[in-house]
Amino acid sequence: MQVLSRQLHKGAIQTGKTVLEKYSYDRTSQMSLPQAVIKAHSEVEVQSILRSANENMIPVVTRGAGSSLTGAVVPITRGIVLDVSDMDKFSVVKQDSVVIAEPGVKTSVLQSAVEAKGLFYPPDPASLEFSTIGGNIATNAGGARAVKYGVTRDYVRGLTVVLPDGQILNLGGRYHKNSTGYQLMHLIIGSEGTLGVITKSVLRLIPLPPYTNTLRVMFRSVETTSEAVTGIFEKGFNPNTIELMDRVSLEIVANDLDFNLSEEHNAMIIIECDGTDKTQVDQDLGTIAALMQQKGASEVVIAKTEKERHIIWNARRSVSDALAKSAPNKLVEDIVVPRSKIPVLVQEVRGIAEAHGLAIALFGHAGDGNLHPNFLFDLKNPNEIQKVEKASKEIFELAINLGGTLSGEHGIGTVKRQFLEDAVGTNVLDLMRSVKKLFDPNNILNPQKIFPVENGKQDKAGFLSDLPFNSEYNDIVE
Ligand SMILES: Cc1cc2nc3c(=O)[nH]c(=O)nc-3n(C[C@H](O)[C@H](O)[C@H](O)COP(=O)(O)OP(=O)(O)OC[C@H]3O[C@@H](n4cnc5c(N)ncnc54)[C@H](O)[C@@H]3O)c2cc1C
What we know:
By secondary structure, the protein is of the alpha+beta class. The protein contains 15 helices and 19 strands. Among the domains are: about 1-85, Uridine Diphospho-n-acetylenolpyruvylglucosamine Reductase, domain 2 (2-Layer Sandwich), CATH 3.30.43; about 90-205, Uridine Diphospho-n-acetylenolpyruvylglucosamine Reductase, domain 3, CATH 3.30.465.10; about 210-325, Alpha-Beta Plaits, CATH 3.30.70. Helix 12 (about 340-355) packs antiparallel against helix 13.
């Protein structure tokens, strides 16, 4: 550390208790104190930090905003937390339809800036007000608009990455097509800080659709909702959003926001269409509204003003915080299945919740088959932890058996690492381990994330009990 402190600006290495505590957690309630926190301000500093950590075999966990929902950013093997959130410069290159961004830029800041120039960066994780572009790339973040526009990966055109030995990789660039050898850039996207540190990205921009409108549909049963979603695609529509909330989520949000929820409304979907032609967008939304009524909707509301759009979205945007406030602890899962399997998934998750006597709120991106079962429980109650472990395992198995997988957008981190082999198979897992060794032979970058812990230290049955959860942690602290 002394060698390193001479290379960095004064006060760069912080070891005070308050700072270490601030960097000990993400949004899963897991907590583990690092030994030091270093804020990097440039690529050269990132190089020095990694080189020194690599020579001294010190673990490094790169951190953007720390909004991970998987334990990915919790320093479970201690070492250094490398905070890159101050590396937040970016510039829009309009003639090439790209934005060049450092990793610490907040997603919403970048989006507003490009929209002011008539351009559009569509990936919209619900955490966009605080998450960073580097974190979004490292988790391949998705969002509500992914159903039409795709996820973060679809917008990355170039990356600069620092490897543990300080080497710099320049991958891709300011161009929109690339068939030049292996696309190593795509290995970095979604690698959760285990292969290298992203110091710069080139992101694709598209023209901003000038008109968007929103439809809220209430249903008597969540299963009918799922069939209605499939119907939208069968009729050839391409909405930019199809978000689902079940009764459990709606009740908790209604309680938190203090609005009345009718007895007959057991599920809600929000559908949004956008485009360049207002008449066409309104026409599409009107036809989808009629289709929803045919599919058994109990209420259909098309927003007439921006204020009405805001009111419709408020319920969906408030769900994470409302759920967090409703129970001592919350575990957010993130599974994805083929869209046609959503009705079975929803039914089975309900069955699993009932069988274990657990509160599981279900919401998410129904248009992508990507739903978030949210377990509401108390970490101080070992019996409840056991039930959550069993139910999560059953839900993961269910998703895989339905032809889906473990994560649509949040990644693996620590909370799903024991199930990775079930999802990808032994040979793929072995190849992933080999890739990790090639990039990071000393295993200093975010160790013990993504990959199952070997030697039976953590088994599937007790995968939560073995993690450093802290039941005192309040999930909604910023
Ligand atoms: C309320 C709420 C809503 C959310 N909604 C969504 C959603 O809709 N869609 C979605 O996909 N996710 C969502 N998330 C999860 C989370 O916000 C995303 O995973 C986000 O991409 C993480 O960004 P971050 O800057 O907070 O990264 P962090 O949490 O700091 O880090 C996440 C991972 O990325 C790595 N990392 C960060 N920066 C770099 C870098 N420069 N180089 C290499 N590795 C790096 C870290 O080591 C870690 O493994 C939500 C979270 C919350 C709390």
